[in-house]
Amino acid sequence: MPEAPLDVGPLSWLARDAPEYEERKKRVQFVPPNISIKDVHAAVPRHLFEKSTTKSLVYVGRHVALSVLFYLFATRIESVVRSTSVAYHLGAFGRSTLTWALWALYWFWQSVAFTGMWTLGHECGHDALSQYGWVNTVLGMGLHTWVLTPYFAWQVTHRHHHKGTNNLARDETYHPLTRKDLKLPEATRATPMDYKQMIEETPLYTLFKMVVRQFLGFQLYLIHNRKGNPKYPPWTSHYKPSSKLFKPQHRNSIIISDIAIGCMLTFLAMWSYRTSFRNVWNLYFVPWLWAHNWIVTFTYLQHSDPTVPYYREKAWTFARGALATVDRPVFGWIGRFFWHGIAHHHVAHHFFVSIPFYNLPAVTEAIKPVLGEHYYYDSTPTLYALWRSFTQCTFIEAEGDVVFFKNQRGEAVREVIDGPTSTDRHTVATGSTSAGDDV
Protein backbone atom coordinates (compact mmCIF):
# COMPACT_ATOMS: atom_id res chain seq x y z
CA MET A 1 0.00 0.00 0.00
CA PRO A 2 1.25 3.55 -0.68
CA GLU A 3 2.36 5.69 2.22
CA ALA A 4 -0.43 7.97 3.43
CA PRO A 5 0.35 11.68 3.69
CA LEU A 6 0.64 13.11 7.17
CA ASP A 7 -2.56 14.67 8.50
CA VAL A 8 -1.54 18.11 9.73
CA GLY A 9 -4.74 20.06 8.98
CA PRO A 10 -4.27 23.44 7.27
CA LEU A 11 -0.54 22.78 6.92
CA SER A 12 -1.13 19.55 4.99
CA TRP A 13 0.54 21.06 1.92
CA LEU A 14 3.83 20.81 3.83
CA ALA A 15 3.43 17.01 4.01
CA ARG A 16 2.32 16.16 0.50
CA ASP A 17 4.12 14.50 -2.38
CA ALA A 18 4.74 16.94 -5.22
CA PRO A 19 3.06 16.37 -8.62
CA GLU A 20 6.46 15.54 -10.16
CA TYR A 21 7.00 12.78 -7.61
CA GLU A 22 3.49 11.41 -8.15
CA GLU A 23 4.12 11.36 -11.90
CA ARG A 24 7.33 9.37 -11.45
CA LYS A 25 5.50 6.87 -9.23
CA LYS A 26 2.94 6.35 -12.00
CA ARG A 27 5.77 5.21 -14.27
CA VAL A 28 6.08 2.04 -12.24
CA GLN A 29 7.95 0.10 -14.90
CA PHE A 30 11.43 1.57 -15.23
CA VAL A 31 13.56 1.31 -18.35
CA PRO A 32 17.22 2.29 -17.74
CA PRO A 33 18.09 5.30 -19.90
CA ASN A 34 20.46 5.07 -22.85
CA ILE A 35 21.25 8.75 -23.27
CA SER A 36 24.47 9.72 -25.01
CA ILE A 37 26.83 12.00 -23.12
CA LYS A 38 27.78 13.50 -26.45
CA ASP A 39 24.19 14.61 -27.05
CA VAL A 40 24.00 16.14 -23.56
CA HIS A 41 27.23 18.07 -24.07
CA ALA A 42 26.20 19.21 -27.53
CA ALA A 43 23.10 20.88 -26.07
CA VAL A 44 25.10 23.27 -23.86
CA PRO A 45 26.38 26.56 -25.38
CA ARG A 46 30.15 26.83 -25.11
CA HIS A 47 30.11 30.15 -23.25
CA LEU A 48 28.52 28.46 -20.22
CA PHE A 49 31.75 26.52 -19.65
CA GLU A 50 33.71 29.74 -19.09
CA LYS A 51 34.80 30.65 -15.55
CA SER A 52 35.22 34.18 -14.26
CA THR A 53 37.61 34.50 -11.35
CA THR A 54 36.38 38.04 -10.67
CA LYS A 55 32.73 37.00 -10.59
CA SER A 56 33.49 34.05 -8.33
CA LEU A 57 35.48 36.24 -5.93
CA VAL A 58 32.53 38.63 -5.71
CA TYR A 59 30.24 35.73 -4.75
CA VAL A 60 32.72 34.48 -2.14
CA GLY A 61 33.34 37.98 -0.78
CA ARG A 62 29.61 38.71 -0.53
CA HIS A 63 29.02 35.46 1.30
CA VAL A 64 31.82 35.95 3.81
CA ALA A 65 30.71 39.54 4.40
CA LEU A 66 27.18 38.39 5.26
CA SER A 67 28.58 35.83 7.70
CA VAL A 68 30.64 38.56 9.38
CA LEU A 69 27.55 40.75 9.65
CA PHE A 70 25.64 37.90 11.31
CA TYR A 71 28.55 37.51 13.76
CA LEU A 72 28.57 41.22 14.58
CA PHE A 73 24.83 41.05 15.21
CA ALA A 74 25.39 38.19 17.67
CA THR A 75 28.07 40.09 19.59
CA ARG A 76 25.52 42.82 20.24
CA ILE A 77 22.67 40.62 21.43
CA GLU A 78 23.32 41.24 25.12
CA SER A 79 23.45 45.02 24.69
CA VAL A 80 20.27 44.95 22.57
CA VAL A 81 18.47 42.95 25.25
CA ARG A 82 19.63 45.36 27.98
CA SER A 83 18.55 48.48 26.14
CA THR A 84 15.24 46.95 25.09
CA SER A 85 14.55 45.76 28.62
CA VAL A 86 15.07 49.27 29.97
CA ALA A 87 13.04 50.95 27.24
CA TYR A 88 10.06 48.58 27.52
CA HIS A 89 10.39 47.61 31.21
CA LEU A 90 10.76 43.91 30.45
CA GLY A 91 10.72 41.44 33.31
CA ALA A 92 12.90 38.35 33.64
CA PHE A 93 10.64 36.28 31.40
CA GLY A 94 10.57 38.95 28.73
CA ARG A 95 14.36 39.34 28.79
CA SER A 96 14.85 35.59 28.58
CA THR A 97 12.39 35.26 25.71
CA LEU A 98 13.99 38.08 23.76
CA THR A 99 17.48 36.67 24.36
CA TRP A 100 16.53 33.22 23.09
CA ALA A 101 14.68 34.69 20.10
CA LEU A 102 17.69 36.76 19.02
CA TRP A 103 20.11 33.84 19.47
CA ALA A 104 17.80 31.55 17.51
CA LEU A 105 17.70 34.15 14.74
CA TYR A 106 21.50 34.27 14.67
CA TRP A 107 21.91 30.50 14.84
CA PHE A 108 19.63 29.96 11.88
CA TRP A 109 21.14 32.55 9.56
CA GLN A 110 24.73 31.82 10.53
CA SER A 111 24.11 28.10 9.95
CA VAL A 112 22.77 29.02 6.52
CA ALA A 113 25.92 31.06 5.90
CA PHE A 114 28.25 28.26 7.09
CA THR A 115 26.44 25.86 4.76
CA GLY A 116 27.01 28.26 1.90
CA MET A 117 30.72 28.38 2.71
CA TRP A 118 30.78 24.60 2.47
CA THR A 119 29.02 24.66 -0.91
CA LEU A 120 31.47 27.23 -2.25
CA GLY A 121 34.32 25.04 -1.01
CA HIS A 122 32.64 22.15 -2.84
CA GLU A 123 32.76 24.23 -6.04
CA CYS A 124 36.46 24.88 -5.46
CA GLY A 125 37.01 21.14 -5.10
CA HIS A 126 35.77 20.76 -8.67
CA ASP A 127 37.95 23.66 -9.89
CA ALA A 128 34.69 25.39 -10.85
CA LEU A 129 35.25 28.92 -9.50
CA SER A 130 38.37 29.95 -11.37
CA GLN A 131 40.45 28.95 -14.35
CA TYR A 132 43.46 29.18 -12.03
CA GLY A 133 43.96 26.04 -9.97
CA TRP A 134 45.71 27.86 -7.13
CA VAL A 135 42.75 30.21 -6.67
CA ASN A 136 40.38 27.26 -6.28
CA THR A 137 42.78 25.61 -3.83
CA VAL A 138 43.29 28.68 -1.63
CA LEU A 139 39.58 29.52 -1.51
CA GLY A 140 38.49 25.92 -1.02
CA MET A 141 41.04 25.29 1.71
CA GLY A 142 39.95 28.37 3.63
CA LEU A 143 36.20 27.84 3.24
CA HIS A 144 36.20 24.13 4.06
CA THR A 145 38.66 24.43 6.92
CA TRP A 146 36.47 27.08 8.55
CA VAL A 147 33.63 24.53 8.78
CA LEU A 148 36.02 21.71 9.80
CA THR A 149 35.99 19.79 6.54
CA PRO A 150 39.38 18.41 5.39
CA TYR A 151 39.55 20.00 1.95
CA PHE A 152 41.86 17.69 -0.01
CA ALA A 153 40.60 14.49 1.62
CA TRP A 154 36.97 15.24 0.92
CA GLN A 155 37.82 16.47 -2.59
CA VAL A 156 39.32 13.07 -3.45
CA THR A 157 36.38 10.99 -2.23
CA HIS A 158 33.78 13.39 -3.60
CA ARG A 159 35.32 13.12 -7.05
CA HIS A 160 35.08 9.35 -6.69
CA HIS A 161 31.38 9.82 -5.95
CA HIS A 162 30.98 11.69 -9.23
CA LYS A 163 32.80 8.96 -11.12
CA GLY A 164 30.54 6.26 -9.67
CA THR A 165 27.26 7.91 -8.73
CA ASN A 166 24.70 5.33 -7.48
CA ASN A 167 27.07 2.54 -8.52
CA LEU A 168 26.80 0.04 -5.69
CA ALA A 169 30.41 -1.05 -6.14
CA ARG A 170 32.05 2.35 -6.49
CA ASP A 171 29.97 5.16 -5.00
CA GLU A 172 31.38 6.60 -1.78
CA THR A 173 28.43 7.75 0.32
CA TYR A 174 24.93 6.85 1.52
CA HIS A 175 25.33 3.17 0.71
CA PRO A 176 21.98 1.43 1.24
CA LEU A 177 21.58 -1.66 3.36
CA THR A 178 20.60 -4.86 1.56
CA ARG A 179 18.11 -7.58 2.45
CA LYS A 180 21.07 -9.71 3.55
CA ASP A 181 22.44 -6.94 5.78
CA LEU A 182 19.11 -6.84 7.61
CA LYS A 183 18.96 -10.66 7.77
CA LEU A 184 15.55 -10.68 6.12
CA PRO A 185 14.15 -13.82 4.48
CA GLU A 186 14.09 -13.97 0.70
CA ALA A 187 11.42 -11.81 -0.90
CA THR A 188 9.43 -14.87 -2.02
CA ARG A 189 9.27 -16.21 1.56
CA ALA A 190 9.15 -13.03 3.65
CA THR A 191 5.88 -12.29 5.46
CA PRO A 192 4.58 -8.96 6.82
CA MET A 193 5.53 -10.17 10.30
CA ASP A 194 9.15 -10.71 9.17
CA TYR A 195 9.43 -7.08 8.12
CA LYS A 196 7.66 -5.88 11.25
CA GLN A 197 9.98 -7.81 13.56
CA MET A 198 13.22 -7.00 11.75
CA ILE A 199 12.99 -3.41 10.54
CA GLU A 200 9.78 -1.66 11.57
CA GLU A 201 10.53 1.22 13.93
CA THR A 202 8.52 3.53 16.16
CA PRO A 203 8.29 7.12 14.87
CA LEU A 204 10.15 8.32 17.97
CA TYR A 205 13.10 5.98 17.34
CA THR A 206 13.14 6.98 13.65
CA LEU A 207 13.25 10.63 14.71
CA PHE A 208 16.14 9.90 17.09
CA LYS A 209 18.13 8.22 14.31
CA MET A 210 17.43 11.15 12.01
CA VAL A 211 18.69 13.66 14.57
CA VAL A 212 21.95 11.74 15.05
CA ARG A 213 22.49 11.44 11.30
CA GLN A 214 21.52 15.02 10.50
CA PHE A 215 23.78 16.71 13.04
CA LEU A 216 26.67 14.25 13.38
CA GLY A 217 26.46 12.04 10.29
CA PHE A 218 28.82 13.99 8.06
CA GLN A 219 31.58 14.21 10.66
CA LEU A 220 31.15 10.51 11.51
CA TYR A 221 31.53 9.74 7.80
CA LEU A 222 34.77 11.74 7.71
CA ILE A 223 36.09 10.16 10.91
CA HIS A 224 35.26 6.49 10.34
CA ASN A 225 33.38 6.13 7.03
CA ARG A 226 29.90 5.87 8.57
CA LYS A 227 27.41 5.12 5.77
CA GLY A 228 30.34 5.06 3.34
CA ASN A 229 31.24 2.31 0.89
CA PRO A 230 31.48 -1.00 2.79
CA LYS A 231 34.34 -2.18 0.59
CA TYR A 232 36.73 -0.28 2.87
CA PRO A 233 38.03 -1.80 6.14
CA PRO A 234 36.48 -0.72 9.47
CA TRP A 235 37.44 2.72 10.76
CA THR A 236 38.53 3.96 7.38
CA SER A 237 39.11 7.68 7.90
CA HIS A 238 39.46 10.83 5.80
CA TYR A 239 42.06 12.00 8.30
CA LYS A 240 44.44 9.07 7.80
CA PRO A 241 46.88 9.61 4.90
CA SER A 242 47.38 5.84 4.48
CA SER A 243 43.64 5.20 4.26
CA LYS A 244 42.34 3.00 1.46
CA LEU A 245 40.30 6.00 0.35
CA PHE A 246 43.43 7.52 -1.14
CA LYS A 247 46.28 6.71 -3.47
CA PRO A 248 49.93 7.16 -2.46
CA GLN A 249 50.17 10.41 -4.45
CA HIS A 250 47.47 11.92 -2.23
CA ARG A 251 49.47 11.47 0.97
CA ASN A 252 51.01 14.95 1.20
CA SER A 253 47.75 16.75 0.42
CA ILE A 254 45.91 14.73 3.07
CA ILE A 255 48.57 15.71 5.62
CA ILE A 256 48.10 19.36 4.64
CA SER A 257 44.35 19.03 5.16
CA ASP A 258 44.94 17.51 8.59
CA ILE A 259 47.31 20.32 9.57
CA ALA A 260 44.74 22.90 8.48
CA ILE A 261 42.02 21.22 10.57
CA GLY A 262 44.44 21.08 13.51
CA CYS A 263 45.07 24.81 13.15
CA MET A 264 41.35 25.52 13.11
CA LEU A 265 40.78 23.42 16.22
CA THR A 266 43.66 25.24 17.93
CA PHE A 267 42.09 28.58 17.01
CA LEU A 268 38.76 27.49 18.49
CA ALA A 269 40.48 26.28 21.66
CA MET A 270 42.35 29.58 22.09
CA TRP A 271 39.16 31.53 21.41
CA SER A 272 37.39 29.50 24.09
CA TYR A 273 40.27 30.02 26.55
CA ARG A 274 40.39 33.79 26.02
CA THR A 275 36.62 34.26 26.20
CA SER A 276 34.65 31.19 27.31
CA PHE A 277 33.50 27.92 25.84
CA ARG A 278 29.92 29.13 26.14
CA ASN A 279 30.77 32.12 23.97
CA VAL A 280 32.34 29.95 21.27
CA TRP A 281 29.52 27.42 21.57
CA ASN A 282 26.96 30.12 20.85
CA LEU A 283 28.89 31.95 18.18
CA TYR A 284 30.41 29.00 16.31
CA PHE A 285 29.42 25.48 17.33
CA VAL A 286 25.62 25.82 17.38
CA PRO A 287 25.44 27.22 13.82
CA TRP A 288 28.14 24.73 12.78
CA LEU A 289 25.99 21.82 13.97
CA TRP A 290 22.93 23.20 12.23
CA ALA A 291 24.98 23.70 9.06
CA HIS A 292 25.76 19.99 9.13
CA ASN A 293 22.03 19.34 9.32
CA TRP A 294 21.46 21.36 6.13
CA ILE A 295 24.44 19.75 4.36
CA VAL A 296 23.21 16.24 5.15
CA THR A 297 19.69 17.20 4.10
CA PHE A 298 20.48 18.23 0.54
CA THR A 299 23.29 15.76 -0.09
CA TYR A 300 21.09 12.87 1.05
CA LEU A 301 18.09 13.98 -0.98
CA GLN A 302 20.13 14.45 -4.14
CA HIS A 303 20.32 10.69 -4.78
CA SER A 304 18.24 8.92 -2.11
CA ASP A 305 14.61 8.71 -3.20
CA PRO A 306 12.12 5.83 -3.61
CA THR A 307 11.88 6.56 -7.35
CA VAL A 308 15.63 6.75 -8.05
CA PRO A 309 17.55 3.60 -9.08
CA TYR A 310 20.83 2.13 -7.91
CA TYR A 311 22.98 0.17 -10.36
CA ARG A 312 25.39 -2.69 -10.11
CA GLU A 313 28.48 -2.71 -12.29
CA LYS A 314 26.99 -4.57 -15.25
CA ALA A 315 24.21 -2.01 -15.79
CA TRP A 316 25.91 1.21 -14.65
CA THR A 317 27.14 3.92 -16.99
CA PHE A 318 28.29 7.45 -16.26
CA ALA A 319 25.13 8.90 -17.81
CA ARG A 320 22.85 6.59 -15.83
CA GLY A 321 24.63 7.54 -12.63
CA ALA A 322 24.33 11.25 -13.39
CA LEU A 323 20.62 10.78 -14.08
CA ALA A 324 20.11 9.06 -10.73
CA THR A 325 19.91 12.56 -9.30
CA VAL A 326 17.00 14.76 -8.25
CA ASP A 327 16.84 18.53 -8.59
CA ARG A 328 15.01 20.03 -5.62
CA PRO A 329 14.21 23.68 -4.80
CA VAL A 330 15.50 23.20 -1.25
CA PHE A 331 14.25 26.08 0.89
CA GLY A 332 13.51 28.21 -2.17
CA TRP A 333 15.44 31.47 -2.38
CA ILE A 334 17.65 30.54 0.57
CA GLY A 335 18.96 27.56 -1.38
CA ARG A 336 19.50 29.68 -4.48
CA PHE A 337 21.10 32.69 -2.80
CA PHE A 338 23.03 31.24 0.15
CA TRP A 339 23.64 27.68 -1.07
CA HIS A 340 24.27 28.69 -4.66
CA GLY A 341 21.72 26.30 -6.14
CA ILE A 342 23.59 23.18 -5.10
CA ALA A 343 20.28 21.31 -4.80
CA HIS A 344 18.35 23.25 -7.45
CA HIS A 345 20.60 22.22 -10.35
CA HIS A 346 22.38 19.07 -9.21
CA VAL A 347 21.59 17.03 -12.33
CA ALA A 348 23.46 19.52 -14.50
CA HIS A 349 26.29 19.56 -11.98
CA HIS A 350 26.74 15.81 -12.32
CA PHE A 351 27.12 16.11 -16.08
CA PHE A 352 29.30 19.24 -15.91
CA VAL A 353 31.10 19.46 -12.57
CA SER A 354 33.57 22.13 -13.67
CA ILE A 355 30.93 24.57 -14.92
CA PRO A 356 30.54 27.40 -12.36
CA PHE A 357 27.38 27.24 -10.27
CA TYR A 358 26.06 30.55 -11.58
CA ASN A 359 25.82 29.05 -15.09
CA LEU A 360 24.05 25.85 -14.04
CA PRO A 361 20.47 27.25 -14.26
CA ALA A 362 21.05 27.90 -17.98
CA VAL A 363 22.72 24.49 -18.39
CA THR A 364 19.71 22.79 -16.77
CA GLU A 365 17.32 24.41 -19.23
CA ALA A 366 19.58 23.50 -22.15
CA ILE A 367 19.77 19.78 -21.32
CA LYS A 368 16.16 19.18 -20.25
CA PRO A 369 14.96 18.45 -23.80
CA VAL A 370 17.73 15.86 -24.23
CA LEU A 371 17.05 14.15 -20.90
CA GLY A 372 13.27 14.10 -21.35
CA GLU A 373 11.45 11.97 -18.76
CA HIS A 374 14.79 10.95 -17.26
CA TYR A 375 15.26 14.46 -15.84
CA TYR A 376 14.08 14.26 -12.21
CA TYR A 377 12.71 17.31 -10.46
CA ASP A 378 10.79 17.24 -7.18
CA SER A 379 9.18 20.23 -5.46
CA THR A 380 8.01 18.20 -2.45
CA PRO A 381 8.55 20.37 0.69
CA THR A 382 12.08 19.68 1.86
CA LEU A 383 11.43 18.45 5.38
CA TYR A 384 8.67 16.10 4.26
CA ALA A 385 10.85 14.80 1.41
CA LEU A 386 13.57 14.15 3.98
CA TRP A 387 11.17 12.22 6.23
CA ARG A 388 9.79 10.33 3.22
CA SER A 389 13.20 9.19 2.04
CA PHE A 390 14.42 8.37 5.54
CA THR A 391 11.39 6.20 6.30
CA GLN A 392 10.80 4.64 2.87
CA CYS A 393 14.38 4.16 1.61
CA THR A 394 15.04 1.27 3.99
CA PHE A 395 16.90 -1.38 2.00
CA ILE A 396 17.60 -2.78 -1.46
CA GLU A 397 17.78 -6.31 -2.80
CA ALA A 398 21.18 -7.98 -2.70
CA GLU A 399 20.74 -9.18 -6.29
CA GLY A 400 19.74 -7.46 -9.51
CA ASP A 401 21.54 -5.14 -11.90
CA VAL A 402 19.08 -2.29 -11.27
CA VAL A 403 17.36 -1.96 -7.90
CA PHE A 404 15.09 0.47 -6.09
CA PHE A 405 14.70 1.18 -2.41
CA LYS A 406 12.09 -0.80 -0.51
CA ASN A 407 10.22 0.43 2.54
CA GLN A 408 9.74 -1.21 5.93
CA ARG A 409 7.09 -3.48 4.44
CA GLY A 410 9.37 -4.71 1.67
CA GLU A 411 7.59 -2.69 -1.04
CA ALA A 412 9.14 -0.65 -3.85
CA VAL A 413 7.32 2.06 -5.80
CA ARG A 414 9.03 1.16 -9.10
CA GLU A 415 10.37 -1.96 -10.76
CA VAL A 416 12.70 -2.71 -13.63
CA ILE A 417 11.18 -4.19 -16.77
CA ASP A 418 12.46 -7.71 -17.33
CA GLY A 419 15.13 -7.96 -20.00
CA PRO A 420 18.73 -6.87 -20.53
CA THR A 421 19.76 -3.87 -18.49
CA SER A 422 23.25 -3.46 -19.85
CA THR A 423 23.74 -1.09 -22.74
CA ASP A 424 25.97 -0.59 -25.70
CA ARG A 425 29.09 0.80 -24.06
CA HIS A 426 30.14 2.52 -27.26
CA THR A 427 26.88 4.47 -27.39
CA VAL A 428 27.09 5.69 -23.82
CA ALA A 429 30.81 6.30 -23.95
CA THR A 430 30.45 8.61 -26.95
CA GLY A 431 31.68 11.92 -25.69
CA SER A 432 33.19 10.28 -22.63
CA THR A 433 36.40 12.28 -22.97
CA SER A 434 34.63 15.49 -22.10
CA ALA A 435 32.67 13.75 -19.37
CA GLY A 436 35.88 12.41 -17.92
CA ASP A 437 37.34 15.89 -17.89
CA ASP A 438 34.36 17.10 -15.90
CA VAL A 439 34.42 14.36 -13.29
UniProtKB/TrEMBL annotation:
It comes from the Eukaryota. Residues 429-439 have a biased composition (Polar residues). Residues 420-439 are annotated as: Disordered. Residues 102-377 form the Fatty acid desaturase domain. InterPro entries: FA_desaturase_dom, Fatty_acid_desaturase. GO terms for biological process: lipid metabolic process. The chain crosses the membrane at residues 56-74, 129-154, 254-273. The keyword Nucleotide-binding does not apply. GO terms for molecular function: oxidoreductase activity. Keywords: Membrane, Transmembrane, Transmembrane helix. This is Fatty acid desaturase domain-containing protein.
